[in-house]
Amino acid sequence: MKKKIPYIIGLAIVTISLLAGITYSAFTDQAKVAGSTFSVGSANLMFLESLSMGTDPTNYRDELPGPTFDNLGPGWQRDYLVKLISMATSKIGITSKANYETINDPKDLRSDIMVEIIKWADTNQNGIVDPGEEGLSLGQKSIIKWKTEGFSLGELNYGQTMELILRFSTPNISATKQGAAAIFDFEFNSIQM
Question: What is the pTM of this model?
Answer without folding.
Answer: 0.79
